[in-house]
Amino acid sequence: MSQPFDYNNHPAIASLSEMVKLRYAARELTGFPRVQARQMMAGGHRSRFRGRGMDFDEVRIYQPGDDVRSIDWRVTAKTQTPHTKIFREERERPVLVVCDLRGPMFFGSQRLKSVVACEISAALAWAGLNANDRVGGLVFGTRHQAEVKSRRSHHAVLQFIHQLQDFSQQLLEPAPDQFSLAHILEEARRFALPGTTVFIVSDFHDFSPACERQLFELARHCNLNFCHVFDAIETELPAPALYAVSDGDQQTLLNTGDSTLRAEFEQAFVTRSQMLKRFSQQLSAGLLPFNTADSAMAVLAQAYGKRRKGRRS
Hints:
It is a single chain. This protein is an alpha/beta fold. It has two domains: 7-32 and 93-232 and 287-304, von Willebrand factor, type A domain (Rossmann fold, 3-Layer(aba) Sandwich), CATH 3.40.50; 45-91, no CATH class. It contains nine helices and eleven strands. A six-stranded mixed sheet has the order 6-5-4-7-8-11, with helices on both faces. Helix 6 (209-221) links the parallel strand 7 and strand 8 (223-230). Helix 5 (181-191) packs parallel to helix 6.
């Protein structure tokens, strides 16, 4: 009798149990991005707007037009001058995690980029929920996409995590990609509400001018963050030799001893990385590099952990 397939222990599939466990590690990301949100709903992030809210800010001398209900009678009695309380409003900042699980993500010398991307996405979702934000997600595979609407709910995060595992499992069956990165960003624009903090988790292998146009539009109303997932082999080819390589359909020999090929290969990665860095600076977007050989949580902890202060992502 055949044994049931164990999805949680397959190295090529993101583990559901491990992604659920990340909810505890995500609690350490106490510096999760604090940005001014444009939503008028109550939330867990302070805005620059002042008025009647939940968080006391300061006391100042009463000015014509101030709400008389906010007069601080104790200070007024002591100073014999009317003073009013000023409150800092709390605004909601939804979090949207966009995870790229297309064919090129099914690659890795130690761990697959797709598995690492799922772990990053799950950790960000949990961190958003811990910050009392509404959390949603978009997952893109080779042929399908899934949407999880933003909610302040464990069920929303769990639904997102299940989609991550399903889409990582689908990569076991090679298929031509039907989505471009530009299409993914266009869908993110359609899905993200103004004031949303958007995380794009991808290897950005097909970054193009069409992507730039979509990102400029997205950055007008949202706070952007790029999570660049890459493998060490993408930065430098393995030791000189003849290697059999395949894309799932065709197979060929790769001569890594060719010095010209090595130089062009390494320069291609450097060019893409520099382009992402330059573009993130233009958009005032966050940029986090994730090597598949490293712990995804270690990178996130460095960016958003307790010792990280004053960082605007």
